[in-house]
Design goal:
- Helix content is 45%, strand content 13%.
- By secondary structure, the protein is of the alpha+beta class.
- A hairpin with a 5-residue loop joins strand 2 and strand 3 (117-122).
């Protein structure tokens, strides 16, 4: 796999770097760009980001491992997040999580053998008034029940 940004993406990296007094402050948006491009942050990708930002790989890895939004292993083409924090839990979030887990035979941060789906149990998605909620690849669905979740998931096939 070729681990380099395109010239246009490198311009975007430079734009991120220009927003901060120190280039290392651009690490989070650049990691996000990398994850969007390659799907996850491999050792080689983190090393590349370190080179771009003139940072030790250990620093890049430290940031990437601290934040759960960065994937350190391949995830599914459809990454399903289910909130089970208090508001969502009280409105059926844990039941939804168990349902999705059973439907695909996977649990937290696992993916199906075909690589199509992955599942993540998340603590809070910041929409307590819309509980329970799920997200699929950054598309958010609020006030869902198991039947609505199945409709969303079945539409992905």
């Amino acid at each position: 796999m070729d681990i380099t940004f395109t010239p246009e993406e490198l311009q975007q990296v430079e734009l991120h770097k220009s927003k901060y007094p120190e280039p290392k402050a651009a690490i989070m948006p650049v990691l996000w760009m990398a994850q969007k491009k390659w799907g996850w942050l491999s050792e080689d990708v983190m090393r590349y980001i370190g080179q771009l930002l003139d940072l030790p790989t250990a620093h890049v890895k430290g940031v990437a491992t601290f934040y759960t939004m960065y994937f350190k292993k391949p995830m599914g083409n459809y990454h399903i997040q289910v909130c089970t924090n208090i508001s969502c839990m009280l409105r059926g979030g844990e039941d939804i999580y168990r349902h999705v887990s059973g439907k695909y035979g996977i649990s937290h941060n696992q993916r199906t053998p075909d690589g199509k789906y992955s599942l993540e149990e998340v603590e809070c998605m910041g929409a307590c008034g819309g509980a329970p909620m799920i997200a699929v690849n950054e598309v958010f669905y609020e006030k869902v029940d198991i039947q609505e979740v199945d409709k969303v998931l079945d539409s992905l096939s």
